[in-house]
Structures are given as C-alpha cells and as structure tokens.
Design a protein that fits this description.
- The structure is a homodimer.
- Chain A has about 350 residues and is α/β, with parallel strands linked by helices.
- Chain A is built from 13 helices and twelve strands.
- Chain A folds into three domains: about 1-55, Orthogonal Bundle (434 Repressor (Amino-terminal Domain)), CATH 1.10.260; about 65-160 and about 295-320, Response regulator (Rossmann fold), CATH 3.40.50; about 160-290 and about 325-340, Response regulator (Rossmann fold, 3-Layer(aba) Sandwich).
- Chain A has helices at about 5-10, 15-20, 30-40, 50-55, 70-85, 100-110, 125-135, 160-170, 190-205, 220-230, 245-255, 290-305, 335-340; strands spanning about 60-65, 90-95, 115-120, 140-145, 155, 175-180, 210-215, 240, 265-270, 285, 320, 325.
- In chain A, helix 7 (about 125-135) links the parallel strand 3 and strand 4 (about 140-145).
- The interface of A and B includes residues 78 and 95 of A.
- Strand 2 of chain A pairs antiparallel with strand 2 of chain B.
- Chain A binds a DNA duplex (30 and 30 nucleotides) through helix 2 and helix 4.
Chain lengths: ~350, ~350
DNA sequence: TTCTTGGTTGAAAGCGTTCTCATTATACAT
DNA sequence: ATGTATAATGAGAACGCTTTCAACCAAGAA
C-alpha cells in the first residue's frame, strides 16, 4: 500500500494525502477526515525510507557506548531509551568496545543513516572526524568529560567531586593511608578520580599516604589486587575502588585472608549498586545518578535537534552530582550519618 | 556527494557506478578501479535511504526487549549486538516494558523501517499482529518459551530443567519444606520454574512441603518477603528465589533477624551473577548462559535473513541449558561438589 | 567481409515520498 | 452579478539510488 493508491481510493491527489500526513491544518476538515478514514481502513503508514529520503532526517538518534556490561552504561542506555521513546525517536545502538576505529566506523554508519543526532559516551573520536560531524551540523551530546571540540555539549557526573568527598570522608575518619584501585584504562573517569583524590589529600590537615593501583573492572580484578596486597603485606588503611565489582572482589579476598573490614582495612566504592547495601559489612559507596544522566543527555540532544536549544558555538554542559552513601565498610560513622543523609 | 556527481567525475554513467557498488564483477576491471578511486577520493558512500527504498531491506535487525534493567536482558542485548555487529547489521532497539501495546507499536515501526528481521524477547504480541508479520515474510526469532505461531523459531534457556535440578539438589540435601519466590508477573519464566519445581517434588522419594510467593524482582522485594515470613514465623527450610537480587534481599532480611543461612534456612537463586559467589555465605545459584542466548538468537535470525536456514513451516528451536553452581548457601555439600562441577 | 556471440555500458523508468507552484474553488465585499 | 482575496487542491519535479533493456564494441567463426 502506498500513497498513490491511497490517493486513488480517497479520490484525491497524492499531494493532498501527503498534506494530511504532514500539514493537516492545510487541508479542509471534511477532506482530511475522509483521507484519514481511507488510510486507516487500509492500515497505511508512509514508507519511512521515502520520507527520510526527502526529509534528510530519520527520527532516529544514535547512541555510541563502549559496552553494555557495566551497570553504569546500562543505566545510561535505559535513560536514553526512555526519553527518546517518549519523543518518538528510535535509538540506533553501537557498541564501540572503547575502540576508536570501531567508533569511527559507527559514526560513518550513523551519518549515512542520517540520524538526527548522536550521543557519544566516553568518546575517543579523533579531531578530524569530530570536525566533519560538526560541519555536517549533526547535533551531538557527549556523555563524559572529554570535550573534543571546543563547543561540544557535555553531560557528566562530577566524579571528581565524588572522589574528593569520599576521600575527605576517609580522612575525617582518621585514615592516614589510602589506596585507590582504578580501572585499567586511562580513561577520563580515572583522571577525574585522581584529581579528586589529590584535592582531598591537599586539603587534609595532616599528611596522608596515598597510593594507587589498576585492575580490571570485575570481581576478579578486585580480588587479585587485594590478594597481592596481602601477600606483600602492604595493606592500606583504606581502599577505594572505582567500581562496586572491584570492591566486592576486594571484600572476598579480605575475608579469605581473615582481614576484617572495616577494622583492618576500610573499603569504599566509587560506584554504588543494589548489592552494596546488603553486603556485610554494607559497602560505603558513591551513588551515581546514571539513568538520569542518560535521560538528561537524550533530552539535551532532542532539544538541539528540534531547535529548542541554540547549539552552535555555545557549550552547554550539564553536571550531575553523585551522592555519598555512608554505610558500614569504612568504620564507625555514627557521627557522620546525620551530616550526609 | 551523490552517485550522479561521482558518475560525472569518473566520466561514466550512473548505472556503472551503481554496478561497481552492487555487482563489481559485471564491470570491466579498469573501469571498476577508476570508479573506485573516484569514490574513495570524494569519500563517497551511497545514501542508505535511497538504497533501502529500492531494495526494501535495511541491513538492520530489531531487538524488542521488555527492559534493560536486569542482568539477563543486558546479556542478551550484548550478545545480539556482538553477532549483529560482526555481520554488519545495525540493531534497532525497543524497550517494551512488558506492555503488549507498546510492543505492537514497535513492531509497526520496525516493519515500516523495513528491518530485515526481528528478535522478540518474552513477546506478548497478539496473534493477529504475529500473523501479519508472518505474512510479510519477516524473519523472526523469539527469545523465550512462548510460541505464538506454530512455526515460530524459539531460543530459550531450559529454566524448567534448571529449577528441577535446583529443587532436586535441595531435596537431596534433606530439605522437606521448600518455598519459591517468583516474580510478580505471570510470565512464562515463572511457569517454567513452577513446572520444574513440581517435577522435582513428584520425583522426590518422600513428601516435601512446597509453597510459593511473589515479589518484585529487586533486593527490596526479597527483603520484604522474608521479613514477612519471619514475622509470621513460617520460615521454610529452603528458599529458592527467581533472581539474585531477591536472594540478596532475602539474605539481608535473614541477617537482620539473626536467621542463619544455611543453618536456619537454605537459600538459592535461579539466576547467577558476579556477586553471588562473593556473598557470605556464597550463594548457590543457576548460571544462565544469557549472552550466548543473545548470540544464538542473532545468528539464527541472520541465517534466516540470508536464506541459509529454511524457516517457513519449520520450527527450529535452540535450547540452552543452565548450570547449577553449588556454593555455600544451601548447607553442607561436599558430597555434591564432585557430582556437579 | 559479414555474422554471431558475449561482455560492457548508458538511458531511462521506477521506488514512495515531500514540496513548489500553478490552478481551481470558496467566501466575501462591491 | 462581478471582482478580489484567500483557502484548497493537483501536477509534476526532486530526493539518490537500482535495475531493465537496448545499444555498443571487440573478437572469433563462417
């Protein structure tokens, strides 16, 4: 069934049917109703390709994301999908696996498919490709703190502030030896965490020993790291992990070696999750509003697409604050509960 | 840049350029090479809409999934994306939230966008819509056990067998009072679990008391249920939860009430996850190969699309078996380790 | 030389829309 | 009735591609 056939059946011209679809107000009530009836009767919907071929738009937004394995990314996807769905945009999904070449391929594909906008999470795109997108006037929103072009729109969680608050919390609890367990990648997230750590350290009244290590973002990664720490008898007073999975692994390694948390070593995670509060001891962690992040990014993108936001030469960042959830894994905290909750 | 311009620049006709793209063998080596060079020089890629408008295909597969919140679904998405990406298919993503109307809307949208195939997870589509898809000859693969049309292709995990094995395991450990905590929805998953439970019960040598309850799939759901159980002093000898989150909640409720696991109550989950093995006690759970499920579904779909599999009137199911991971939460099991691992 | 064969190529129709522009219908004032 | 402004409609080009069909060309056979 196509528009021509509908036009014949309704006894009007193709143009009129098209108008009924796109500019209903420009056609007489009676005609419109009649055409609508015929369309309905034959269960007609306009061919999306033909529409898009003309309009050079597709009612689609692209979401380029490193992976789908971690809770953080999953929440973002969910948030983007929710907002996009509400605004009748489809979302075309690309898993970049942190591979810049793969990301570039996806970008080409998305451009070719005339997506109306693109959300890039932790983008590692090279300048050239970013510029070519900019020249195309393709609305973009970055999730993550790495601004590629000077007028990129950014959405991110203030991880630095979170890391700072977490570290400050540990220092206030009296810890003078803190170790950070970051991810293996030298991502901007890791950099932000480091900045946060060091700002907190500088702000401490007294000297605090600080070290850091890297491990894969998994239970196994956390387990192996702490196991190694134990073997080399260099257990820090407090361990802060980038992810909850690492913290869980760390906790298990500690338990296996009879190291008591929080008495022998305090433990905290810079990523909260549903399980953190039910571990024993319950894990002090940073609650990241990651679904909100996805929703915010999608909304900003769609605002750009629909011309609600002026987006050229006007960076418009959105920064969401994480929230410190103080639980049991860092020691006696009754003094602090009331301060933070 | 369009095909006409390329044709001019290469000094050939539009048809020749098109042939270079689609049927390279039908053009003379020298010509082809020359055209290819021009295409490359101007960084030309054919307009996807124009192509698709002609070909009535889109190199896209649709993935309709209830949600993205649970690990199970996330793994499926990841698996589908992986296989699809390798075969150069894009994946268009739809979150149905278990709403049949929303699912139907997505199906319409996908049909209109001429997706080459569609993967439906836990589909609740009505017969009529399913039939219309069938009549369109649109390849489909269902993930889940609910066959809507008699010749649907199904991919699913043998949850029933898993539930059976889990229950049998508990019975062999000597439990004579077992309670199941299922999800709130009356999904086919719940049905399968029930079948598994009852088959195991029938197969038991002696009488086993069995009861079941429903709770939302979350830590909170598990917590509240067990709390209620404790208040009414009707704690079962063993509790089997549908999800790991529920089990974690249950574990916390038990701990809060000084109920010892596994001594006072055995606990097991029909969904394994990274945290299960690091809880204390480590949680006996069913390992579901859900990423493999997604990969298998995508492969089957693409095989259908590319005509490798005959798919009409020939149901072709793929059933993956879960694996029982026996840990600590169901009591002394040294006898069983060697049997199952 | 002339005919045949088969490989290369180009002209133009079609895919299903939207949009511009010209035309026709309607309403209202004269 | 007549003219005029405006609303409603239709004809046809354009979007960028694929494909059919006819034309062309070279090489070998008669």
């Amino acid at each position: 069934m196509n528009i021509k056939r509908i036009a014949e059946l309704a006894g009007v011209s193709v143009a009129t049917v098209s108008r009924v679809i796109n500019h209903p107000e420009r056609v007489r009530d009676k005609t419109r109703e009649h055409v609508l009836n015929v369309m309905h009767e034959y269960n007609y919907t306009p061919n999306w390709f033909a529409q898009s071929l003309n309009l050079e738009s597709s009612k689609t937004i692209a979401l380029l994301i490193p992976g789908i394995e971690t809770n953080f990314f999953q929440q973002i996807i969910s948030g983007v999908e929710t907002v996009a769905g509400n605004k009748a945009y489809a979302v075309l999904f690309g898993q970049t696996s942190n591979l810049p070449t793969r990301e570039a391929e996806f970008v080409d594909m998305m451009i070719n498919r005339k997506v109306d906008g693109i959300i890039q999470v932790n983008s590692q795109l090279d300048l050239e490709k970013a510029l070519s997108m900019q020249n195309l006037g393709l609305p973009r929103v970055h999730i993550g703190k790495n601004r590629i072009l000077s007028n990129d729109t950014l959405c991110y969680l203030d991880i630095e502030e979170g890391a700072l608050r977490m570290t400050r919390h540990l220092i206030e609890l009296g810890h003078s030896s803190i170790m950070a367990l970051l991810e293996e990648t030298n991502s901007s997230t890791s950099e932000q965490m480091n900045s946060g750590f060091h700002r907190a350290l500088r702000g401490a009244g007294h000297t605090v020993f600080f070290s850091s290590a890297q491990a894969e973002n998994s239970v196994r990664g956390g387990y192996l790291t702490v196991q190694r720490l134990i073997l080399s008898k260099s257990i820090p007073g407090a361990l802060v992990t980038a992810s909850d999975l690492q913290a869980i692994g760390a906790m298990k390694a500690a338990r296996d070696a009879q190291i008591k948390i929080p008495d022998d070593m305090a433990l905290a995670s810079l990523t909260d999750s549903a399980v953190c509060s039910v571990l024993s001891p319950a894990l002090t962690a940073l609650e990241l509003p990651s679904k909100k992040l996805g929703m915010a990014a999608a909304r900003m993108l769609i605002d750009q697409i629909e011309g609600i936001l002026p987006y050229v030469d006007m960076p418009h960042d959105l920064i969401l604050q994480p929230k410190l959830k103080i639980r049991e894994s860092c020691g006696n905290t009754q003094d602090f509960y009331e301060w933070f909750d």
